[in-house]
């Protein structure tokens, strides 16, 4: 069985972060492992508080995994501090980690800073060059590039700027634009657009986490990047369509094997 590692924050309500990633890995047929970078007290309404995990413990978690188990793909989510970013970058380089999907998580849907604003530069310098693909939403892409983005053409312009920072590819998510949610993939040479229809629901907690974890699982299973993104987009669309009306705020997306079987991917392969 292929393995996927998530390096991210814990969400007590189970909809985003580590919990969303592990559910996604299971549904998409990889064995999930986790390095927890922060513990958030969070629910569907928002984030109450955050405790960052000390860099030593983050380093030990990474050593524990990489010295014992073969890692087939990595997904990076919430990192919160400069120290966390530095230790994660150091260890991923040391172990020559494969297929790194970097979700540059900055602000929660409810407006809480999950990455300290002064750590954006460290994220750019230390982690963008290691990423196989980086998956910013539009506000994150604006912070990373300084660009203003209101249209799909401006998403493409920003992707051209961002690729200069060193990632192998960019998947810019269009969920925050007014129009239908189109995601734009740029591999440095060509653009591919992934079109979606907006699903009318308030239950979108954890969509970004789920998408990046699904891409990481696909890469671990040997899919080419475009196919991994296509499968991930199918998966997140199903997970939003079937999202759960749990809690009084933004409910979570739903994860189950059916979504994956309906997408017609890997069915015969799973043993
Ligand atoms: N209402 C919706 N209907 C259909 N697809 C959506 C909807 N909202 C988001 N998406 C899709 O879900 C994926 C995640 O995008 P989104 O822009 O929500 O990420 P995000 O802002 O990083 O999420 P998060 O708030 O969890 O960090 C993208 O593929 C996007 O196009
Ligand atoms: C722990 C965690 N990671 C990422 C997000 C982004 O949605 C969140 N709300 N919580």
Automatic annotation (TrEMBL):
Keywords: ATP-binding, Kinase, Nucleotide-binding, Thiamine biosynthesis, Transferase. The keyword Flavoprotein does not apply. Its EC number is 2.7.1.49, 2.7.4.7. InterPro entries: HMP/HMP-P_kinase_dom (IPR004399), PM/HMP-P_kinase-1 (IPR013749), Ribokinase-like (IPR029056). Pathway: Cofactor biosynthesis; thiamine diphosphate biosynthesis; 4-amino-2-methyl-5-diphosphomethylpyrimidine from 5-amino-1-(5-phospho-D-ribosyl)imidazole: step 3/3; Cofactor biosynthesis; thiamine diphosphate biosynthesis; 4-amino-2-methyl-5-diphosphomethylpyrimidine from 5-amino-1-(5-phospho-D-ribosyl)imidazole: step 2/3. It is an enzyme of class 2 (transferase). One of its GO terms (biological process) is thiamine biosynthetic process. GO terms for molecular function: ATP binding; hydroxymethylpyrimidine kinase activity; phosphomethylpyrimidine kinase activity. It catalyses: 4-amino-5-hydroxymethyl-2-methylpyrimidine + ATP = 4-amino-2-methyl-5-(phosphooxymethyl)pyrimidine + ADP + H(+); 4-amino-2-methyl-5-(phosphooxymethyl)pyrimidine + ATP = 4-amino-2-methyl-5-(diphosphooxymethyl)pyrimidine + ADP. The keyword Kinase applies. Transmembrane segments: none annotated. GO terms for cellular component: cytosol. It holds the Pfam family Phos_pyr_kin. Belongs to the ThiD family. This is Hydroxymethylpyrimidine/phosphomethylpyrimidine kinase. It comes from Priestia filamentosa. The lineage of its organism: Bacteria, Bacillati, Bacillota, Bacilli, Bacillales.
């Amino acid at each position: 069985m292929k393995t996927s590692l998530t390096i991210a924050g814990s969400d007590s309500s189970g909809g985003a972060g580590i919990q969303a990633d592990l559910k996604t890995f299971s549904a998409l047929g990889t064995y999930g492992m986790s390095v927890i970078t922060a513990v958030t007290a969070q629910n569907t309404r928002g984030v109450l508080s955050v405790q960052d995990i000390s860099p030593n413990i983050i380093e030990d978690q990474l050593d524990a995994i990489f010295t014992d188990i073969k890692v087939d793909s990595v997904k990076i989510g919430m990192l919160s501090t400069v120290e966390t970013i530095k230790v994660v970058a150091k260890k991923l380089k040391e172990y020559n980690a494969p297929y790194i999907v970097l979700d540059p998580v900055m602000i929660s849907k409810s407006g809480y800073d999950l990455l300290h604003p002064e750590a954006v530069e460290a994220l750019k310098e230390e982690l963008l060059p290691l990423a196989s693909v980086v998956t910013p939403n539009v506000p994150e892409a604006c912070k990373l590039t300084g660009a203003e983005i209101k249209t799909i053409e401006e998403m493409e312009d920003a992707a051209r700027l961002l690729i200069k920072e060193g990632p192998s590819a960019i998947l810019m998510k269009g969920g925050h634009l007014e129009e239908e949610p189109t995601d734009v993939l740029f591999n440095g040479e060509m653009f591919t657009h992934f079109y979606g229809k907006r699903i009318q629901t308030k239950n979108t907690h954890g969509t970004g986490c789920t998408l990046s974890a699904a891409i990481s699982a696909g890469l671990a299973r040997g899919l080419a990047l475009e196919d991994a993104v296509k499968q991930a987009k199918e998966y997140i669309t199903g997970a939003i369509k079937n999202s759960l009306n749990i809690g009084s705020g933004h409910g979570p997306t739903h994860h189950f094997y059916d979504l994956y079987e309906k997408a017609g991917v890997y069915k015969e392969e799973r043993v």
